Amino acid sequence: MECLARPYGSLAAGSWFKLIGGASLQNLPTLSNLALVYTLAGADCIDVSADPAVIAAVGEAMVHGHRLAGFSPDAGPFLMVSLSDGDDPHFRKAHFDAERCPSDCPRPCLRICPVDAIAAGGIEALRCYGCGRCAPVCPLGLIEFRAWQAEVATIGALLADCPVDAVEIHTHRGNLEGFKRLWRGLAPVLPRLKLVAVSFPDEPGMREHLADLWEVMRAGPLSDAARSHIVWQIDGIPMSGDLARGTARASVRFAREVSTWRLPGYLQLAGGTNDASVELARAAGLAIGGIGYGSYARQLVQAETETGPLAEEPERLRRAVEQARALVCQLKPHLQQEGAAPWLTTTPQLR
């Protein structure tokens, strides 16, 4: 696999690695740690919620990572924000009234939550990313979900002063008018974007829907760079990659079909991706730009990223980056061949 300049070159080489921070996740300490770790590990893109506080924290962590590793300014990763053109499970928060939860409840929700967002007093909204695992196990059916996303009409103004490189729009069949409204709302930032992605599930009529979206996109005020770097994210089983290796099969199976649609740009796997995804994609002979990793990539380093600022603890940071780098190297074997990055054998000084 040819090693090209990141991050555009990674798409061309099929080695694009995207960290999915969670479209609804707003836990700033954790997201800062994740951004720092995966910047140093070699990620090409870090995708987070369209929350200015999240964007600022993640952007700062990425800058620290650049300085520590000695990256050139154009070496990536891109900072991407995720949006939705309608109802979507990625853009929600779980909620329940803690006063209605009986004291003798065994609380299976506590055990199943992957980010410890549930406590005796209810759900900590900043930690919740809407995975949906808690609701089915609640014995009283108390847990519900509430949509979470910025206002479509003002999203462009909200992002205008944020250091955003790329935007990803989650879509569903039948949401064409919603997509058009969101696209109009993004008008202030579209000309400066470096890349645009569209995330979509396996639904009947999706091929025709994406063709309609492309007509809207190609008529918009996109930069030449973004227009020539459209990423189509194939969403297999959303927010499930940490559950079992087999979840990786869904996006690969769907990608075989999507690859016949001749979409302009690059295909990227997501939704259930994990350490089995690269092997499965290669076995299937898929021509993809890369892979986006969400819950699996986050859980891989969770022991380090959930216990205080990594920028202040070099040894913990080193351990986390080594763990993350093992996953990144599946797509970028040249990093493994190059050996440990120089900073891994010295004492990092971020501050």
Automatic annotation (TrEMBL):
Keywords: 4Fe-4S, Iron, Iron-sulfur, Metal-binding. Residues 92-118, 119-148 form the 4Fe-4S ferredoxin-type domain. GO terms for molecular function: 4 iron, 4 sulfur cluster binding; metal ion binding. The keyword Iron-sulfur applies. Its cofactor is [4Fe-4S] cluster. PANTHER family: PHOTOSYSTEM I IRON-SULFUR CENTER, PHOTOSYSTEM I IRON-SULFUR CENTER-RELATED. This is Gll3769 protein. It comes from Gloeobacter violaceus (strain ATCC 29082 / PCC 7421).
